[in-house]
């Protein structure tokens, strides 16, 4: 019980010191301060419009480069002013108003095609429609004044945001690094469990895929924050420290991904000796927990934890290898021992990266890894194309974004008509619920609807209890401000909790205006349920966009990226110095493509059961792509971190054959007809040659052992490890690429 309380208190502390709560406080100040100041100087009549402007233009203020943040807020200000003006001038003519809602909501929803920040600007535009419906302005002068003050409010919010950035310039960076450290720690722990928990592998594998997607998304945002910041303001000790942590996190992620083993082979090798894998699992767990602790230190600014416990666990892996060899004996134990040594080698590298992060956090200067040229860093940034052609390409019913825009438009019009027809009090709440809930895919919309309703009911119950206890307006005012802060802070982390605090805020604001607060609570719940129902039904019935129809392009991109990553790894083997940057860029693209495929599969599983077409087959394709990525990362990571021999002709032949097979898999998805495929015999011969190399090294080692040379020298061990890993990974890759081609062929035949 005491331990649970400590964990909860630590969670609360991390939240209150984190960037989400900080942003919530900033937005509350931006929205509430004009009300306080203008009330004090007896000009309160102007304050609500400024507060609305601040509130409307906050959504696009998300972590990213300063330039994009400023541009995003400025575009949002112009859009919300224009939308508000159009709604106001069409209000007197009901038919024109309905037409304006339909056209504006459709056009604004399409802005989302330009990426995440654009989707938040789009959300501000849709929110402006709702608030314009809620506010009444009787004449043109009042309209112009309100719209102008909204613009002032937007600029005021931008100034407050920039000032908050000046006060705590690295708040977002530290929060994102902290989140990434924690996710990476969880990922390492899952990877450890995969070693020994053979009966739960599918469950843990699915968890690993979800974590990979989340980590890749964090990496993208961090690249923009850290590399754009470095490009803008030059190198500084503060920036370099964070960049060093980020580089170590990317390396840890690759190392963990590279260590995705052929678990069926592991089970065969260690069938009765699984206990020898336990120290390796324990070390992964210890490293993962340590990263999670370090993630908390970035927010709490506490002292570094002791690393001695990890060193103690690491020594047990050595003992495990020696005990395994002693029990099974050589040469029978050789393959298992080499597998364990490769595993140990990987974990030693993980430990070095964790220690590198510790050195940075303890402020020990070490710039060995941060020597990335500005010109090179640009190549790691994913630039968003804002060309008009992007929008034009989406004017097709095949486009999920166009279908989503139609759905949003029809749902908003229907919700407003329904509220008007039945003369519901605050009918615009129905439209508001539709705006905040509707997403392009059905599963997420349904999940948000459920959380919105539950959160609203929880908020309503709490508000009712408080209203029954007291009718003190000062209490309502304080609670309105506090609930506003927590609503903004929690809406991204927990939509259910955010919805509860939004309801509390609305009830207390209305309670200050209207003594009959219970009526407000009642209508709030009713309108939320109606709006959520319309949102879910619209996603299901109006131009539904089921995920299985959009998978082809995502799968092709993942396969192509893996193929390019494999080609870059081949070049790296030939020349580490010259091809290092090309390799890392290809690695980043492959990780992102895999993340997109994982996310697409997660969306598929959220669709109704009847629409989850061949989900088992799709999951096979996802796992095959993931395993191919892991196998390539395994080879690349080994080449980067070890002294290696020259790449052989056989290595090149096998790589070329595998990339041809992967190309064949993409052609099956891109073409309508089946393409005959014949395996190149040269590949089989090349693989036999590589296997013979390992066999010859093993035979030589057996002779040495018989001659009494039981201690293996480091060069022989490295040669054995390299020959074993390269040969086995290539054989595995070859098999995986053929399996993927067969799976894509079956997939195409099902969906033709």
UniProtKB/TrEMBL annotation:
Sequence ranges assigned to domain Integral membrane protein YccS N-terminal in this UniProt record: 73-323
Keyword Transmembrane helix carried by entry: yes
Domain of life: Bacteria
Keywords of this entry: Cell membrane, Membrane, Transmembrane, Transmembrane helix
Cellular localization per UniProt: Cell membrane
Main location: membrane
Membrane protein topology class: Multi-pass membrane protein
Residues of the Integral membrane bound transporter domain: 416-537
Entry-linked Pfam families: FUSC-like (PF12805), FUSC_2 (PF13515)
Transmembrane segments: 21-37, 70-88, 94-111, 118-135, 141-163, 405-422, 457-488, 494-513, 525-543
Entries under InterPro entries matching the protein: Memb_transporter_dom, YccS_N
Family, per entry: Belongs to the YccS/YhfK family.
Official protein name in the record: FUSC family protein
Organism encoding this protein: Olleya marilimosa
